[in-house]
Amino acid sequence: PFFNQLRNVQQLGYTVGVRIASVISHRQVIQFYVQGTRDSEYLAKRVQMFIKDYLKTLKNYDEKALKHLIGSIVDAEVARQSNKAKAVNALWSQIAHGELCFLQGQPLIDCLNSITRKDLVQFWLKYICDGAASDLTCVDVHL
Question: How big is the chain by its Cα radius of gyration, in Å?
Answer without folding.
Answer: 17
